Fold these 2 entries.
Entry 1:
Amino acid sequence: MEYRQLGRTGLSVSEIGYGAWGIGGSMWIGAQEDDSVAALHRAIELGVNFIDTARGYGDSERIVGGVVRDHPDVLVATKVPPKNMVWPAPDGLHPDETFPGSHIRQSLETSLAASGLEAFDLLQFHVWSDEWVGKGDWLETITDLRQEGKIRFFGVSINDYQPENAVALVRSGTVDTVQVIFNAFHQQPEEQLLPACAEHGVGVIVRVALDEGGLTGRVSSGTTFPEGDFRNTYFGGDRAAQVEQHVDALVADLGIGTDQLADVALRYVLDQPAVSTVIAGMRTVRNVERNAATSDGRRLTPEQRDAVRRHRWERNFYRAADA
């Protein structure tokens, strides 16, 4: 496992982190707790030292806490949901409606109790709007929580496909990390956000590097998901067929087998030096071993990078198909 600096925090994080949304039993359906615990333990054995969870991920905080209490060197990040429970953050709101200080504190205390941890290494807001810079009492609350030793660092999870909607925050110097969607299809963060983070020493946590499974090569027009699984919407209608067509074109251009696509997709993201860690969703030991193997120090060739860049495909499947 290779390691990188998490911005200016002084923390060294594994290139492959553990995204713990899928193990919480909410929205991603089908996770078995025994499998999740085994996957977490295997990830730590293979050198993964950064786990990302959230208050809104069902039982995820409890499961993660139960494992990492025996591994004090593993870093854990969690997230505060917006008080209004609206994802992503719409325009025109005041932070008193989304992240008032009392709400931040209450959510953190609930997360600490659920996980059994005494503190989190990183506390993130689960949505963000640059309209909130310099407004509300959220920054004072974050400062207080740090002084109390309940959190070490502060970050935000940027709204889906809005990477520019955190550049002002990055430049303000008040945030340690940002979490952003960045993958072989969604390349927009390379334009403004990643350069700003590199300039200001802000750590970058990449989510959805495999496009919710689309960049694994295992989503096709005939793919089905369990009832209640959010991927029925994400890949609904003709979207799975669209993904299949784009994936087929990408692997043909790269000259690789479909089973090699996930590895190439992760390497594409890791080729960006501003990226600190990629939090891959991993619910089984097999997934852990496959993703961890990508962190071996090898990088894509210039020809491979150019091929991926030719297949940029900006869209938002989190919105309803008719939106």
Entry 2:
Amino acid sequence: MSVDAEQPAGTPSEVPGIDVPRLADWLARELPESGRIAAIDLIAGGRSNLTYAITLDGGRRVVLRRPPLGHVQPTAHDMGREYRVLTALGGGTAVPVPRTLALCDDEDVIGARFYLMDHVEGRVLRSREDAEDIAPERARGLSEALAAALAAIHTVDVDAAGLADFGRPSGYMERQLARWRRQWDGSQEAIRATGTVRDLPEYDRLGARLAERMPPDRPARLVHGDFRLDNALVRLEPRPEIAAVVDWEMSTLGDPLSDLGLTLVYWAEAADADELPVGAKITSAPGFFTRREFIDRYAALTGSDLADLDFYVAFACFKLAVILEGIHARYLQKATVGEGFDQIGEGVPVLLRRAHRTLDTGSL
């Protein structure tokens, strides 16, 4: 939703999650060279942290990120962590990220902590329709570029980047299982408060199976936490490339195969029977890697031991099911902003079934 640049100071804003007059005052203090706000638009597609494109006088564009409205888990949506990792990665690593501009810790400005970063020109690819102008050879090149971006994240020298204390890698997967179980419990409480009852018996059985299959610790690496094609801005000319990897809200130090497992859950193939209500369907178009090809390329770039990859895929299904349940809770509270939230809850049982099938058969 756009905001008229000439509106008088103090005019109530209709932009969800943004107090425009207070934001304008903050910008004038913190980034005095930025100029006045000409427009603010909610960027479509965000189902967690909210992302806004801000147009300033003279046409410059910046991006604002803030936590979602409504039901928010206590350990999620830390703007400071996201700002820190982007700033660190922008300081000379091979990971493509937007340049950070400023972090605001004062929740009185717009009602939550937020940060600003440069706008990066690039396309977000999600649907099969988005692939209509992408030749198969370019789709393959884009698959290569995405695998290279994931490998770049997992080979960052965290000491040199100033991220050695960015997480507690020992016992990472065990803590992840406990964390997402807590998130699930919090979402169930929020859902019950709306008068809704969810019957998902496969959840408890899956948690027990994952605990039994828990692998030993691997060497800690930087992990993105939600790595997928539509969390990247891409360019196709003159050659396919990842212009920026975005949405770093769940990044930390931990087991890199947790990232790979989640990427594979999102990676659609033409023969897949179940479709998720999130993630890019475009990878089922001609030319894109299969999941096996993506695995092989990642292994070649990193030299990683991919034993127990079925566990990581099943765990990724579990984690994503919990995330979708949290989004579903916010939808039931009428606290979501944007479209498509009415179908999010339907993906939860799909993911739980897929996790059990993966553990039963080893299929990826």
